[in-house]
Design goal:
Elements lengths: L2 H9 L11 H5 L1 H13 L4 H27 L9 H17 L5 H17 L4 H4 L4 H26 L6
Length: 164
């Protein structure tokens, strides 16, 4: 398999980034779905799998992001969703470590918070997006993930009925 084909396959999360409507939302689903499934079937493995998504998504962005930037001519190509995988991995890892209850409310709240901050791009997300190559593609999503973790921690403290 050629480098460009591999770059496209991995950065689009096996084609999820090519979905014409909301590719970032669809691209961020794999860690969220696995978070939920593992929460019921094998909760002890959840943090490790979420850490894998965080690391793997980050590596893919840094390794193959520059090829996709060059191919599309865009600083942050819409079809590149490995950054969403990393960002959601970060949020789900945080939730798995904060609360052992991996039920639908925790997953849904984490997912929604990440997508909100990823779309709104509060400071410094927009600024981080300007970093070179795949680092810029990744950094804004990791910052959105940090904001989502903070939001979840606040909700967990003040509104625990929605987080357990």
């Amino acid at each position: 398999m050629g480098r460009m084909k591999k770059a496209e396959l991995l950065t689009t999360c096996f084609g999820l980034g090519k979905i014409p409507i909301a590719p970032g939302t669809f691209g961020s689903l794999p860690p969220v779905v696995l978070f939920q499934v593992l929460g019921y079937l094998w909760p002890a493995a959840t943090p490790y799998v979420m850490a894998f998504f965080l690391v793997a998504g980050s590596w893919v962005c840094i390794q193959y992001g520059p090829a996709m930037i060059a191919a599309t001519g865009k600083k942050d190509p819409q079809q590149v969703v490995a950054d969403e995988v990393a960002g959601q991995g970060l949020v789900m890892l945080f939730i798995a470590l904060l609360t052992p209850e991996h039920i639908c409310n925790t997953m849904a709240l984490g997912f929604l918070l990440f997508r909100l901050f990823d779309i709104l791009k509060p400071w410094p997300c927009k600024r981080l997006e300007k970093l070179p190559d795949g680092v810029g593609v990744l950094a804004d999503d990791l910052m959105a993930g940090i904001y989502a973790c903070i939001g979840f921690a606040i909700a967990y403290h003040w509104l625990p009925q929605y987080c357990t």
